[in-house]
Amino acid sequence: MKIHEYQAKAILAEFGVPVPRGKVAATPEEARAVATELGGSVVIKAQVHAGGRGKAGGIKVISGPAEAEQAARQLLGSRLVTHQTGPEGVPVPKVLVEETVDTARELYLGIVVDAQAKMPVIMASEAGGMDIEEVAATAPEKILKAWVSPVMGFQPASGRRLAYGMNLDPALVRPASDLIGNLYRVFTSRDCSLAEINPLVVTRDNKLLALDAKLNVDDNSLFRHHDLADLRDTSQEDPLEVEATTTGVNNYIKLTGNIGCVVNGAGLAMATMDTIKLFGGEPANFLDIGTVNNTDRVVSAMRVLIKDPDVKVIYFNIFGGMARVDVIARGLVEAYKQLDVRVPLVARLTGNGLEEGRQILADAGIRVIEGADMADGARKAVEAARGR
Amino acid sequence: MSILLDRNTRLLVQGITGAEGSNHARLCKAYGTQVVAGVTPGREGQEVDGIPVFNTIDKAVQATGANASIIFVPAPFATDAIFEAADAGLGLIVCITDGIPTWDMVQVRSFLAGKDTVLIGPNCPGLISPPERAKAGIMPADSFLAGRVGLVSRSGTLLYESAAQLTARGIGQTTAVGIGGDPIVGTSFVDILQRFNADPQTEALVIIGEIGGAAEQDAAEYIKGHVKKPACAFVAGASAPPGRRMGHAGAIISGNNATAESKLRALEAAGVRTTRNPAEIGLIAEAMLKEKR
Asked: What angle, 0 to 180 degrees and rounded to 10, lies between the N-to-C axes of helices B157-168 and A266-278?
C-alpha cells in the first residue's frame, strides 16, 4: 500500500528523521495560511501516489502567500498526469506546503527487503534526486549497499560505511548514520516494503534533510497496523479496483482488453491471461478469486466485471483445490439471480467439487460455454469476444 | 521413491479444528498419508475424524511420533505456528497460510538457518508424493499420478494444472511441490531441484515459474552446473503489466530479471525445454521424455 508524502514525512519526523518545515493543505486558503506562517518563498507539492510529479507540473516554487493560494487552487481538484499514471491522471486531494531549502548535495537513501538474501538491504548513493532504478541500470557502482541482520538489527558501523562511502563531510557522518538507523527503525516497525528518501539533501548550512519521502507498506501487515490502514487513499486507485477490494475481491487488476477473467490462484490467473493473448485476445483484468470458500466473493467478482464496459465475455477458469468448484457454481447461480449479466459466460471447471458444481449450474439453467481445458476455454472466450 | 514426503511421514495438522484444517486433514488421510495428530491450543482431548488433538506440538510429538506438520492457521498466528513446529524439531513444515508479512518471513528464515527443518511455503499448496500415497497439501489428488517426473511450481493452481496435463498423458510424478508465491519462502526452486537431482527415481524435471524475483534464474544456474536429467519449464505472467503485483506478493515485474521472457531465456540457456503456452506443459514434457528414450 502506498501512502502520501506528507504522511510518510510525519512518520519519519516521529522517528527523528529531519524533514523540511511545512504542513499539508486541502484548500487554497489553508495553503495561503501555511505559506504565511512559513514566511518567504515556499514549495507547493501535489500529494499523489505517483512519481514524476516535478516534470508533470505537480511541484511549484512560489514567492509568497498570495501566489501559494493561487498555485494550490490550480492543483487541488485537478488531475495530475505523470509518466507513472495513465492518460487520465490521478486527482490531487491535498498539497504539501513547505519551506524552500538551499541544497548543496542530493543523495539517495532507500531500504527494501532483498528476497534473495532474505534480509533488509539499505541502499545509499551520491546520485540522489534521480530515478534509482535508472542509476542501478546505468551506474550500479554508484549504489552502496548494506545488508542488515534481522538478529543484530541496524548497527552504526553500516551507517558509517555508507556515510563515508557517500563522501560526506566528517561532521555529517554521525548524523547520517543516526538518520539511516532511524529510517531502518521506520522500515521494520511500520512493516514497509519500501522506505525511501530521494533526495536526502545536504543543505548549504551543512545539515541533512529528507526533501522527499516515500513509504510503501506491506499489505499483508495491515492487520497489525490499523493506523496505517486508515491512511489508504482510494482516490488514487482505479475505481473498479477499489470496488473489488471493498467487496472482498482483493486480487483484481484492471487491464485494457475485453475478456473478463475469473480464476482461482494467481499463477493460474496469469497463465490464463497468457493463453488468451496467445489466441489473439486481450484480458480485461487479472482476477484471483482466492482460496476462501464463499459464494459472495463470486457475486462481487461478477459485479465488478459486468460494471466494466469493456468486458464482452467472462471466462471462468477454476481448478478446484482449496476453493471448490461447487462453491464457485453456487456463487455463479447467486450472481445470475442478483445481477443483470448480459455477456456470455465461458467456463473451464475442473478439480475438487466438479460433479456437484456442474449439476448446480445445469439445475439453475445457466448457459455456459464449456471449455474442455484451459486452452479450449481461452479459444472460446476469444471467439465470443469477437462476437462469434 | 519421492522427496521430502513418503509413506513413513507422520503428519500433524496445526489448526486442525478450523474448517480448512479439518477438511484437508481428512483428505490427506483419505489419500493414504499417516495423519497422526492435530494441534489446537485448548482443544486437547478432542478428535477430528479420528485424529487426536493436542494443545502443543511437543505433546503431540511425544504421544504420536509426529515428524512433519502442515499449517492451516490464519496469517497473524502463522509465524508463531512455524516457530512452534521448528522449535519442536519437526523435519518438515508445510505452511499453507497466505498473507504472512514479509518481515515475519525474514525472521523465520533467520531462525531456521542452520536447523535441519525444511519449510515449504508459505502461501503454497503443499506437496504430494503419489508413489508413496502421501500428501501434505490441499491439491486435488485426482490430478496426480505415480511416476518418474519431479514437478515443482511457485503457484498452487498452476501446479494442479500442470500435473493434470502430465497425468492426462500418463506421465506420473515422484513428488510434486508447490513452493509458494511470496517473495520469501522457506524452500527455493534450487533446494527442490537438488533433492530431485539426488533422487534416483526422479528421471526428469518439470519447473513452473512465474514473474517476479530471480528464483528461475537461480534454478537455471543450478541446472547448468549440476543437473543431467532432462528438464522442461513454463513461466507464467508474460502478459502481466510491469509494476503491478499479480496476486502473489512475489509476482511483480520490477527490473529486467523479473519478466517471464528473461526467465525463460535463462532456463533455455541452461538446456531446459520451454513453452510460452501453459496449455502445452504436458506436450513438452512428453516430447522431453521421448527424446530421452
From this structure: 60
pTM: 0.93
Q: What is the mean pLDDT of each run of 10 residues along chain B (293 residues)?
A: 94 95 96 97 95 97 98 97 97 96 96 96 97 96 96 95 97 98 95 97 97 94 96 95 80 81 96 96 96 74
Q: How many CB pairs under 8 A join A and B?
A: 170
**If one looks up domain A238-385 in CATH, what number appears?**
3.40.50.261
Distance of alpha carbon A267 from alpha carbon B181, whole angstroms: 8
Q: How far apart are the first and last CA of chain B?
A: 21
Each residue's pLDDT tens digit, A211-220:
999 999 999 9
Taking contacts as CB-CB distances below 8 angstroms, the residues of chain A near B210 are 266-267, 270
Q: Which is the CATH superfamily of the domain at A1-20+102-237?
A: ATP-grasp fold, B domain (3.30.470.20)
Cell 459485479 found at? A303
Nearest to B278 among A133, A220, A275 (CB): A275
> B241 contacts in A (CB within 8 Å)?
253, 255
Interface test with A, best of B157, B206, B263, B284 (most A CBs within 10 A): B157
Q: What fold characterizes domain A22-100?
A: Dna Ligase; domain 1 (3.30.1490)
Measured distance CA(B236)–CA(B197) in Å, rounded = 24
Domain B1-123 indexed as CATH 3.40.50.410 = no
- The helices-and-strands tally (H runs, E runs) of chain A is 13, 18
**Interface contact B36, partner A, CB < 8 A:** no
How many angstroms separate the CA of residue A135 from the nearest CA in chain B? 12
**Which ipTM score applies to this complex?**
0.92
Cβ neighbors of A252 (< 8 A, separation 6 or more) are A240, A241, A244, A245, A285, A286, A287, A301, A304
